[in-house]
Every structure is written in C-alpha cells, then in structure tokens.
Design a protein that fits this description.
By secondary structure, the chain is α/β, with parallel strands linked by helices. The protein is 37% helix and 15% strand.
C-alpha cells in the first residue's frame, strides 16, 4: 500500500463510528478499498488534491489490519518464569479486596535476606525474573527475591464488584505493605528485607520503607531504579505524545514481544519473552478492528495518578532510615535535592551504560551484581558487628 493510501486512511479513520458491525464480509479487499478510494489524481507538482467520498471508515481500518496481520514468529514465543523463580502464588488481602500475584525464591537460610521488588507502571513482577535468578546465583542462595504484581497489573486481581481504578500512591503503598505483612506476619522473625523499586515502583518502596520500619521490620536498604523526581515531573506533559506511538494492541503475544524489542523498550530478548506476556491480555471484544491482545494496564488510564507517584520522592528517599541506592540508565540530571544529598554522601549512585529505562531487564547480570554488592556492603550494618568472644 502506498504512503498516499496510508495517509488517506489515517485521516478518515480518525472519525470512526462508535458502533461497528462485527459480521463483515471481506472478499476482494484490495478491489473494494480501491473502489472506495476512487482514483487519486496528481498534477506532478506536489501532493495530489484529495477528494471527499461518502464511505464507511471502519472498512479501511479492517483492511489495514488484514493486510498487516502476520503469523506469530516463534523466535519471540513466551518463555515460562518457572526457571527463574521457585514459586508463584496468590496472596489474598481481604481487607483490600485484592488477590496479589507474587513470584518468590526464598533464601536458603531462614534468617537470610530477601530482595522485595516492585515494578514500574504498565509492567509486572516478571520484569525482575532474569535479575532474580542472577541474584540467587551470585549470592549462593543467601539472597532470596520476592517480586510483586501491583494492583491492576499482571495477575493481581480485584475481588470486589466495585470499580478498581485507584492507583494513587497511598493505595499502592498500602497494597505493598499488606503483601509483605501477609507473607512475613512476624516482623521479628522476618528475614532482612532490601526494597527495590523501578520507576513508579521506586516511589512505592521508598514510602513503604518508613511504614515497615515503624512496624519493626528489618530493612537493609532501599534501591530505586531509573527514576528521579525532577526529571519525572518534567516529562509528564510529554507523556501523551509518547503514548501516541504505542499500538492499541497486538495480533499475538509474539508480536507484542517483537514490538518491545524492535522499539528498544526492552533490549534483552530473553527477558522480554518472560515479562511481556504478563503486560497484555486477551481482548473481550468481538469487533474485528479490535486487536486480539490489548494492554493489561492502559497507561493513559493511569494519568490522574502520575503526579502523586513522583511528587516528594526525592525528599522521602533521602530521609528513609536505611542505606540508599539510586541506579540510573544514563547520566540523568539530578534535581536540586538529590544533588545536595549526593554531595553530602547520603546515597550511592550508579549509572549503567548501554541500557534503557528497563535497565534491570536490559542488563540483569549487571543489576544483580550491583544489588548483591549493595547487600554485602550493608549486611554487617544490619546484623551488627560481633564483639570479641561472641559466638
């Protein structure tokens, strides 16, 4: 199809009708669309003049979908996470009307350390799968990993008949704390916890840290991955433009994986094949113009909560009563508060070159090395240095 045809279709598809019939007879698609468009004359002195036709625009969208549809590529087929986590189970939070999916590899010692991971907006706990396995291997099993699917993400499901749209930071923090307390009900017997959050998840774990410390949990550190309050706030006005570049859905899971890799949203094929199946879900629509797979969490629907996720993040991060680590994908400009905090030595910062925003998926080995080193450096501060003569 020529660029001219595509521009014609795009302009007309912007005015799609609300109700589109699902029983469509598609025969000789090329001829039908050609007849509907009519001839497209040009003078040779620039773009041809466009004519106005009384047509049914939904046929153009359907035509595009039929022409673009391709067979799933097995090179992008999903990979099971069973080789990356030991367990996957649901955690019921009855008082929050929530059934949370978690992925867990326990430490080999009961009093060991567990890295509790919270993903970013639109993703799932499986985005930490490759990193989790690397952490287990590098630590010799002394570090476990617990990854949580947030509300309206992954396989976490609401148990209420009421609308479950609220993704404000206070709700997400209470969900996170609820999962930790349910899995480790006795704070004194709980393992040492290191909280890791990517993007939106960084804001969640930073705020949850204070609550868990107040409830007597041992927190060995907080690690925030690729989010800076100042940069995040500045980027919010441009988010809708970025989302315009995302497709509404996909014809197959394989196509979704391929799109993330082709656009470099994720740069690691293995990680993408594990994590991306959880960020889409089968469409319930019978309309042929709706893709078979749509986003599990449409990011536009989360727009009312973007400000709450990031405002105050720097202050909260600098004031948590534990070790602090900021890992960035590039030399992101620190906001004033973080810059002062860095000069005062209040946190450690590491830049991981060659990665994008999903740095823990792009280079899980390097992130695991950073996290295990962070754990080892701070472990003695949590446990305490033994005195001479102590066993």
């Amino acid at each position: 199809m020529s660029d001219l045809y595509r521009s014609t279709l795009s302009a007309r598809l912007a005015k799609l009708p609300a109700d589109i019939p699902s029983n469509i007879d598609i025969e000789d698609e090329d001829e039908e669309v050609g007849d509907l468009l009519g001839s497209l004359p040009g003078s040779g002195l620039g773009p041809p003049a466009m004519q106005v036709y009384d047509i049914q625009p939904w046929k153009f969208l359907l035509y595009l979908r039929l022409k673009a549809k391709k067979e799933p590529n097995p090179a992008f087929a999903p990979i099971s996470a069973k080789s990356f986590f030991v367990q996957a189970f649901q955690v019921a939070l009855p008082n929050r009307n929530l059934d949370c999916r978690v992925y867990y590899t326990p430490p080999k010692f009961a009093n060991g350390t567990v890295m509790v991971c919270q993903h970013g907006a639109g993703y799932s706990g499986l985005s930490f799968a490759c990193m989790a396995k690397e952490i287990t291997d590098l630590s010799g099993g002394e570090c476990g990993v617990l990854a949580i699917d947030a509300r309206r993400h992954g396989k976490t499901m609401s148990t209420s008949d009421q609308p479950d749209e609220d993704l404000s930071i206070s709700v997400l923090v209470d969900d996170f704390v609820g999962v930790v307390q349910t899995i480790y009900p006795d704070a004194q017997a709980s393992p040492n916890l290191i909280l890791i959050g990517h993007s939106m998840g960084g804001s969640i774990v930073t705020r949850a840290c204070t609550i868990l410390l107040d409830r007597k949990y041992t927190i060995g550190g907080v690690a925030v991955l690729d989010v800076v309050e100042g940069s995040a706030i500045e980027a919010l006005p441009h988010m809708n433009s970025l989302l315009n570049a995302r497709p509404d859905g996909f014809d197959s899971v394989e196509e979704a994986v391929e799109w993330h890799l082709n656009t470099k949203a994720i740069r690691n094929p293995t990680s993408a094949r594990i994590s991306i199946p959880a960020v889409i879900s089968p469409s319930e629509s019978s309309s042929p113009i709706v893709p078979p797979f749509i986003w599990r969490t449409p990011l536009r629907s989360t727009a009312p909560y973007w400000q709450s996720w990031f405002v105050g993040l720097s202050h909260t991060f600098l004031n948590v009563r534990t070790a602090r680590l900021l890992v960035l994908a590039g030399t992101d400009r620190l906001d004033k508060e973080l810059m002062i905090g860095q000069m005062q030595g209040k946190f450690q910062m590491i830049v991981v070159p060659g990665t994008g925003h999903m740095l823990h998926e792009d280079d899980p080995t390097r992130l695991a090395e950073i996290m295990v080193d962070f754990w080892r450096r701070n472990e003695r501060l949590v446990i305490g240095i033994k005195k001479v003569g102590e066993a």
